[in-house]
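mind reviewing this fold:
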Amino acid sequence: MGTEYDFTSYIQLVDFLGLCFGEQTEVVLHSFKDINHSIIAIHNGHISGRDLGAPLTSFALSKLKDKGKEGPPYYMNYLGMSKNNMPLRSNSFFILDKSGNPVGMICINTDVTKYQQAAELLQKLAFIPSLITEDNENNSIEAFQSSPRDMINGIIKDVTHSAGISIERLTVDEKVEIVRRLNIEKFFLIKGSVSEVSTMLGVSEATVYRYLSNINKKLKMEKLS
């Protein structure tokens, strides 16, 4: 721990990184020469409430034995906590000497309070009552499509579980199921819908009408049974 090491370039890096990341991010440089007064450079110390000469954290002490021996010399995206209990996203990079021994560490701690508040707001804005209320009648979701063709493509994808499948690969059963689903969505109330479906499924309009006739007959039989 007493090995002399020139941290000059790292001290300059601390200010550079601090200015790059902004006031919500603290950048700290530790020297392991004196772990009780290890901080030799710090930018935005208000994040953790520390200053020059503050001691090494217990987390860093617990990891000292690991670094420089096995694995990469850093820890990324772990949870930190400031003195006033602000959650921090923390990252630490161990500085190694020529022999591979840790002599110092750069830590980057970002106050994520505002991000958490934004995430909570987004969750509230994204709240969809029909998806979570127990008394919802049919659990249906309104899907907004930009064109009838998009709607057909969406149902083809659902039925075949594949996007961009060629018409030639569609089976008769799949084509019937696509027409059935479109019928449920009241798609055939749209003018020119039969022609659009026949083109996309590679069948004649008469075939689409036959599919619809059989589907409707089956529905009537199910209602009567």
Observations:
- The longest helix spans residues 205-224.
